[in-house]
Write a structure and sequence with these properties.
Rossmann fold, 4 domains, alpha/beta, 25 helices, 7-stranded parallel sheet, 6-stranded parallel sheet
Length: 696
């Protein structure tokens, strides 16, 4: 299965002509290296029903749902979205993420009743919030308290790159516009709406002219853009006439600007002034910076953060209202501050923004939904549930998912008897089966006969399994007794099915689940993952002189050792460090270490909790045990070429946990002492309580 994250964005590219922001973001997401790859399509209710995406990405939901003037149409959109989303959540685990450009819309739309329904709909359906600045994120939490505890992240507004023809020289731009080369051009550009307060620039320039201030000499004020209503246009023309009567120079171009015309004005200008009454973010300011023009903005919203990112010689954030004093100070700043030809916009680079956005998507997909228990709570079976998994990672995964799929029902566990399974399932009812080597299909049939006999006496009502080969025996027995069977593919299998999964893929009447939303298709669904509800945080390093405790764990696989990893760690770990070596079947007889093949689960968990550093192979069970203990493991994938596993599937899981920040991933031969020391900077926290789900 290809690792593709499907995103339905509202909008995606349909608004490119009016505002290229969404097009640039979609293009950057689809161009990201690594996995999962991202596919972005235009959102529609029809597509949400037919081919549910993993993510519905809203940007301006008031425009998506409340555009136009018909309240009944608004209601129909809201209801249609709720119904289509409910189905998409069941089929594909779809999540809704809202990039909040403006916590409070600039204009109120629809009726009071519909706006109330719209607000409740967002608070109930949005699973994660993105903001373009830290100030914006705080504003969302203040304005939308119902979303305050949802997963949230900051993803900046990127620069406009080559979307506009911004390479024309200043002199040529002025020639094309008929503007004298000696004038200082102060520009307001963009759609003219009441809250943008364009008239304040004309009033301030007129007042400055009346004061006979030297700053007004050679000044030309330009307002370029289409007013939103005729009254606003009339006001601007009156203010321009007053400015002319005072001896000032003003140019009004009150019409919609195409890209070429807007670029001409920006390149001709010396300064862009945005005297907004309210502002959170500003694409106009970023466009001016992309054009190499300094900007003046109110010290509101994200403007102070923008100044800090690109430099205060490029962004002048003023307090209070915009008046003659503000304009004089801005002109003095323009002439006083030295600046390069273009600002450093590396903080607004689209690849970094896309990486942060993809990471936020994956975080929301793995976090439990606040309302999930209402929609997906597993039905309580009246009989006994059978949980089947081979010891090691498969058993660790099923044990971690047990309460979410079977609740507190009467459970019969089926596994092979090892120190891990005895410890992990202490106090539970367990039916033991042999741990057979891979592809031992005759043994699968023998075990199926044993399980069929046990099922008859236990009155089993449902069977769940995370593999491995033991799942095939359980499936045959379940088929014989017509008992429902649900198979959850191992979390290790990120991109392709396991051998067991490939067999089960061909058998009808099985409920099949993968643990990664981007790995779904028409036969395999997503409902839950062992990585749900985790987040990673940075903490200070231990004090100098601290001697770390290390746990090295290569999992419980009885058939494959990991000699390269053990020998590398033995070579780089200082002899004064305390190390627990859990080495499986690895031959370490020639090394001077106290090694154990395996440990009871409770004992290993205790050692991991006490450890400062944990090094693990890229097995799901091993990684999960470390994450649940609040540690960020160093993960080293096994290589089939070295006889360390049956295939290269550990690469896929290693890539996934590395991309999510859940682990530091290294090759066995490249691991260094600095890797071990620096990884102590990170801890893992629960991001929320994972809710029960129906996998039946």
């Amino acid at each position: 299965m290809r690792e593709i994250l499907r995103v339905a964005s509202a909008p995606a590219r349909s608004t490119r002509k009016a505002n290229p922001y969404n097009h640039l973001l979609a293009t950057a997401l689809e161009s990201l290296p690594g996995e999962p790859s991202v596919e972005v399509e235009e959102f529609s209710l029809a597509k949400l029903l037919r081919t549910p995406p993993h993510i519905v990405h809203l940007h301006w939901p008031e425009l998506t749902f409340l555009s136009g003037h018909r309240g009944l149409r608004h209601l129909a959109r809201l209801m249609g979205f709720r119904l289509a989303l409910a189905r998409a959540r069941r089929v594909a685990g779809t999540r809704v993420i809202w990039t909040v450009h403006n916590p409070r819309p600039h204009e109120e739309r629809s009726t009071t009743i519909v706006r109330g329904l719209y607000r409740r709909m967002l608070e109930r359906t949005v699973d994660g919030v993105l903001a373009l600045s830290h100030d914006g994120l705080e504003a969302v939490r203040q304005e939308w308290p119902g979303l305050a505890h949802r997963p949230a992240a900051v993803t900046r507004h990127g620069h406009y790159g080559h979307e506009y023809p911004l390479d024309i020289p200043r002199e040529k731009a002025r020639d094309a516009l008929g503007i004298a080369k000696t004038e200082t051009i102060v520009l307001f550009a963009g759609q003219v709406r009441p809250y943008k307060n364009a008239g304040a620039l004309l009033r301030a320039a007129t007042a400055l002219r009346a004061e006979r201030a030297a700053a007004a000499d050679g000044l030309r004020v330009v307002v370029a853009g289409k007013p939103s209503d005729p009254g606003l246009e009339g006001e601007l023309r009156m203010l321009a006439a007053e400015h002319a009567e005072a001896g000032g120079a003003a140019t009004l171009e009150l019409e919609a600007l195409d890209d070429d015309r807007l670029a001409l004005w920006l390149r001709a200008a010396d300064l862009l002034v945005l005297p907004y009454r309210r502002i959170q973010n500003s694409g106009s300011a970023i466009l001016a910076l992309t054009a190499g023009r300094p900007v003046v903005v109110p010290a509101l919203g994200a403007m102070e953060e923008l100044a800090g990112e690109v430099g205060r010689e490029w962004v002048h954030a003023y307090p209070g209202d915009f008046d003659a004093t503000t304009l004089r100070a801005a002109l003095e700043w323009l002439r006083r501050e030295p600046r390069a030809e273009h600002p450093d916009l590396s903080a607004l680079d689209w690849q970094h923004i896309a990486e942060a956005t993809r990471h936020a998507f994956l975080t929301v997909l793995s976090a439990p939904r606040q309302k999930e228990s209402r929609m997906h709570h597993a039905a309580s079976p009246s009989g006994r549930v059978m949980l089947v998994a081979t010891s090691g990672g498969h058993l660790t995964q099923l044990h971690s998912l047990r309460l979410r799929i079977a609740g507190t029902e009467n459970v019969l566990w089926v596994t092979d008897v090892t120190a891990q399974s005895r410890s992990l399932l202490r106090g539970e009812r367990v039916f033991g089966l042999p741990n057979r080597p891979p592809r031992a299909y005759l043994g699968v049939v023998r075990d199926a006969i044993s399980l069929a006999k046990r099922m008859r006496g236990e009155r089993i009502t449902h069977v769940y399994s995370t593999g491995a080969q033991m799942a095939l025996s359980a499936l045959l027995a379940a088929k014989l007794h017509r008992v429902p069977f649900s198979y959850i593919e191992s979390g290790t299998r990120v991109r392709e099915l396991s051998a067991t999964g490939r067999v089960i893929d061909r058998i009808p009447g099985v409920q099949r689940y993968v643990q990664y939303p981007f790995a779904t298709n028409d036969r395999w669904r997503f409902a839950l993952s062992v990585f749900d509800g985790l987040s990673v945080e940075e903490v200070p390093l231990p004090p100098e002189g601290h001697t770390p405790r290390v746990v090295v764990s290569v999992g419980g696989n009885a058939h494959y050792g990991f000699e390269r990893l053990i020998r590398r760690l033995h070579a780089i770990i200082p002899p004064t460090w305390s190390v627990l070596w859990q080495v499986g079947p690895t031959d370490v007889s020639d090394l001077d270490i106290d090694a154990v093949p395996s440990l009871p689960a409770a004992e290993l968990a205790h050692e991991i909790e006490r450890a400062d550093i944990v090094v693990s192979h890229a097995g799901t069970g091993s990684i999960l045990s470390v994450l649940r203990a609040g540690k960020r493991p160093i993960v080293v994938p096994r290589r089939a070429a070295h006889g360390e596993h049956v295939d290269g599937h550990q690469d896929d899981l290693a890539d996934y946990v590395d991309a999510r920040g859940f682990a530091l991933v290294r090759e066995a031969d490249e691991l260094t002492l600095d890797d071990l020391i620096e990884n102590q900077r990170w801890v893992v926290r629960p991001a929320g309580r994972a809710a029960p789900v129906a996998v039946a």
